[in-house]
Every structure is written in structure tokens, then in C-alpha cells.
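Example record used in the benchmark description.
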Amino acid sequence: MPGSHGTSEFGGIATLPVKSILSYPNLGSGEIGGFVLTLGLYKWDGRVSVNSTGVTIVGTPLDLSPFLHFIFQIATMLGFAAASRVTLVGGVLASNIVWAATSVVIAGASSHIEGVVLAKTAVTLETGL
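Model output (C-alpha cells):
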């Protein structure tokens, strides 16, 4: 239904009508570098950062339905360190991943992000020059 996506709770940019299996509030206190993440809804009250270790998103063939998603809702800023990487394992599709920040998203030089990236204010891709 047009106009039905999003809520005022999350600035109208990030809540989608999807089925998620589990909810993970404030995982790692916002530092998720080195984590292996499975299907679900991840929500943080503050900023989230991925260090140079990167993050791995793992799924199984049962998780690959177009109605099952990996949703990352961040109340402020999302940052990816230089040379960090989001790695997909088990056939996970980038189209089933949504990163949404109510402030900015900053991708450090040579970082690699998989998924749809939404930001209310700005998305900055650093070059390292």
C-alpha cells in the first residue's frame, strides 16, 4: 500500500513490513565489528560502528525468502571503519539487508557494505585521498 512504509518512531525511513525471527536490542553496545549475525531485527538506541574486523551476516536456505530480512535500525549514526567489510555467508542476498540510521552513515575508505543503506541526513563514502 503506497505510503505505508516507515513510522514516525524511526524518522519515517526504516521500518518495513517484513517478517523477522528474532529481535536483538543494543547488541554489542553498538560496536559490532567481529560479530556473526543471523536473521533478525537489530535495534540500537545510540550509534553503531563496524571496526576493521568487519561483520559477517549468515543465513541458511530457509532464510532466503524475500519476506525474511536482516534489519539494522540505528537511532543515530552508523560508521564503517576504513577497510571494514560486510561479508555474506550461506547465500544471503544483499537485497534482504537494510541498514537504516536516523542521522548519518559514514563508510571509511576501502570499506565494503552489503545491503540497502538508508540515512536521514547523509551517506558519506570516504576515499582516503
